[in-house]
Each structure stands twice: as C-alpha cells, then as structure tokens.
Amino acid sequence: MKNPVFREIFSLIFFFLVFMINCSAPVQMSAVFRGDSPLYFNLTSMSLTEADINSLSLNLNRKPTDNVVVTLSSSSTRVAINPLQITFTPDNYDQPQTITVSGVNNCKSDTDETISITTSIASADTQYSTAAQVSIPVKVRDASDNLPQISFQQTSEIVTSELGTIAFFTVNLSCAPTADVTIPLVVDKQTEVSVSPTSLVFTSANFSTLQTVTITGLPDCIADGNKTFVVSSGNVSTLDTRFARYTNAAGSSQIHSQVSGTNNDYQGSSDTNISLSSGSMDMTLDFTNGHPDPFISFSVSLTCPVTTTVYFGFLATDTTNTANFSLAAGAFGATTSFAKVKNTTFGNSFLSFNSTNWSSPQSVLIALDTVTANLAYMKSTTTGYNLKTPVFSDSTVHKIKMFQSQGDVAQTAVATPAYAAKTLNVNITVNSW
Questions:
Q1: Which residues contact 299 (CB under 8 A, 6 or more apart)?
Q2: Neighbouring C-alpha atoms within 13 Å toward the C-beta of 234
Q3: Cα 50 off chain centre by
Q4: Are 268 and 278 within 8 A, CB to CB?
Q5: Tens digits of per-residue pLDDT, 351-398?
Q6: Average pLDDT over the chain, rounded to an integer
Q7: Burial 12-29 (b: 16+ CB within 10 A, else e)
Q8: How far is 21 from 144, CA to CA, in rounded Å?
Q9: Residue 117, pLDDT score
Q10: DSSP symbol at 390
Q11: CA atoms within 13 A on the CB side of 271
Q12: What is the layout of strands, in order, in the sheet containing 258-264?
C-alpha cells in the first residue's frame, strides 16, 4: 500500500478496531474492590446511634472457583453485627448478602466514636484467600435515652376472657445491672386478670434473657362488657442507681414499663359459674369378681363468690329406665334402700354454697336403685347379698341434671335461677358372671 493517504486511513481503522475491542472487555478497577480485594461493601461509610438498626450489603465482583467464607467483626461493642459469617458459592457469588448493623446501648454517656466493621476471608480460591481485608467506618453516637431500659414486649395483641383464656408477654433488661433488679408486676384491674409470676428478678447473668409473664382472664360474675387492663412495672428494687427512675425515689418522674390488653366478658349463660369435675361418668357393675360397688362420684364447686347461701338439687332426666336408675332426696344409706344421691361433705342429698365455701369442691355420690326387681340380686339380706342372675341390661345414656333449688330439702327449682342447670351423662355397663 504505497499511497500514503490509504496507509494513514488503514492505520486509523486498525487502531479504532483495537480500541473498540479493548472497551468491550471487562474493566477491573481497584476502586470498586476497595483496594486489591474483589470483595466490597455497597456503602463507603455508615452512621447510627446506640438505639438504631441499619443494614448494608456485601458483594463479590468475581466468580470464585470455590466457596468464599467471609467473617465480619466490629472494633467496638457499641455495634452488633448479624450475621457474623457469610458464605458465597460459585452459584450465588453475584447475589449481595445483607448484614444488619445494630447500635448497642451500653447504658452510659459516651462521646461520638468511629469504629470499623472489618472482613476476613477464607477460601481455596487464591484470588480471595490472598485478597486484602475490606472495612467500612461506622460513626456511633449516643442514644437520646442511654439509661437502662426495662423492656415489656408482646408478639401479638393481648386478649384474655372470663372463661380463663390466657395471654403472654415477655420482659428483659437492655443492659447488665450492677446489682439484682426485682420488678413487681402491677395490674390496674385485679378483678379482670391475674399475672404469674407476680414479680421478676434480673441479674448481670440473665438480664437479656426474656422472662415470660402469663396473664389469665378472671370471671367477675357480672355482665359488664369487655374491659381493658394494664400490666406495668411497680416500684423496682435494686442497688443499681441507673434504674432509679423506675423506683419511688424518682417521685413524680418515676416511669413504668407496661403492656395493655382486653379481658372479654363472657356473653353466654351463667353455666360457667358451676364447675364440675367431669361432664360424663361411666358406671360398671362387674359381677365377675363378686359384689360390685354401684357408685360413681364427681365434685362440684362455684367459680364466683356468693353473698348468700345457694342450693342445688339433682334430677334423673331420662324416663325409660327409672326403675333401674333414679335419683331421690333423703338420707343416704337408709336401711331399706339407697338414696340415689349424696353430698359426701355434709351427708345431704343437696349441695349448698355460701360466702365461705363457694370455691371448695363438694363430692357427690350417685348410686343405682338397689331395691328394684331387676336388681334384686343386690338387695341386702340377713345372709348377705342375693346372687340371683342379673337380668338388668341397659344401654341408655342416663342424664343427671343439677339445678338451683329453693332450699335444703325441697327439690324444687328456683323460678329464675342465677345458675343455668348442668347435665351429667352417666353410662352404665353390667358384666355378669
């Protein structure tokens, strides 16, 4: 190519093509890698207080030939990192990994401080194992309230009910105390709910461990609608003066940690005011081993206090087998027959509750009618029990109704009872010899 013009044009085209090829190839810039490392953060710096939570991401710029394990550390306890270790693989190397950076309240006044979050790398890939450490500066400032906190925490809405429904919340301290901290728990409406335990103790060893408090709804025996309540920290007892604002010593400036909730009223009948130990009983007459004991028992108590004496009687509500199974008033264990129900506490065929014994369970015995023809083999004679072949066969589920009665003898129901009747199912099985 002797023409100098053409030679010059050819040279320009050649250099242009070389330039374009170089531009299309990957460009590796040390600034992107924060030095010589192919590992980098998405931020160049960070700032937060001891009460803040922030985040950043960690990235790889080159595909590794093996897993890359990155361990992170902080130069100060005023910052917490989570997670402390991240693993990149050849498959996920191009996916940024999120790191949570949290300020840690050390419960004292500090000056502003710049700390470092630094990485260290472990990998069989030498381009990473020999890479320089990467770090990011984090400026940490005091929280606006850097005094110790008593933290009441709930994961959901706190709802209890007069049926005894329970709810929970947890408590811990924001920093280690220099002396034990005892926190009494105070309920503003003690007829609505109770708490257990009623106080908590935190030490320097367990201060950060969440302690669970159980709130139980209480029946108040009146239709008063749903009620809100507050559970709060009472007068805290400790020798750690940093918690002074939670004590009476703080006077009008005393503060309280607290949670609030709702105790739902029971909208049904007063049926729940009677507590039975069982709603169903099984009675088995087993003659394969001699004379059976034809009794069953259960207990009754009230769930709400009463101011006057309340009486309860019993009735057998089925009519198909009344000859074999019935209830009646009278002294239990009479010479001619068994009365069918007995209050074992007082020896009566009724129950009575008053302001003193309303919550004490009273035991009740129920017996089969042992003087009927079909059960004549159970009748007591001068020579013992008559062992006639039993002809009693019963597959009926008998129902005993407990109801509020007018007095201690008359089995007459109260016209407008404060307590809805309870029904007890009795299943009878006879095993003959």
A1: 276, 277, 361, 362, 363, 364
A2: 12
A3: 30
A4: no
A5: 788 878 887 887 776 655 443 333 333 333 444 444 444 444 444 556
A6: 74
A7: eeeeeeeeeeeeeeeeee
A8: 57
A9: 94
A10: P
A11: 9
A12: 159-161, 258-264, 227-233, 181-187, 199-202
Residue 6 CA to residue 332 CA, distance in Å, equals: 133
Other Cβ atoms within 10 Å of 358 Cβ, number = 17
150 contacts 233 by C-beta, under 8 angstroms: yes
CA nearest to 182, candidates 246, 250, 118: 246
pTM recorded for the entire structure: 0.48
Asked whether the beta carbons of 175 and 207 are under 8 A apart, the reply is: yes
For the chain, what is the total number of helices (H) and then of strands (E)? 2, 29
Question: Do residues 134 and 34 touch, judged by C-beta distance below 8 A?
Answer: yes
Q: Tell me the CA distances in angstroms from 173 to 8, 204, 241, 284, one per residue in order.
A: 81, 10, 14, 58
Whole-number Å distance between alpha carbons of 208 and 222:
41
Beta bridge partners of 195: 215
DSSP assignment, residue 245?
A: G
Long-range contacts of 79-87 (CB under 8 A, 24+ apart): 79/48, 79/103, 79/104, 79/115, 79/117, 79/138, 79/140, 80/104, 81/117, 86/58
Is it true that the peptide bond before 197 is cis, omega within 30 degrees of 0?
Answer: yes
Residue 215 · residue 261 · CB < 8 Å? yes
Angle CA(76)–CA(80)–CA(83) in degrees, nearest 5? 130
Q: List the one residue out of 410, 430, 411, 290 whose CA is nearest residue 368.
A: 430
- What is each CA distance from 133 to 95, 113, 250, in whole angstroms? 20, 21, 50
Domains of the chain, first to last: 39-141 (2.60.40.10), 150-264 (2.60.40.10), 271-431 (2.60.40.2030)
Give CA–CA dist 59/190, Å, rounded.
56
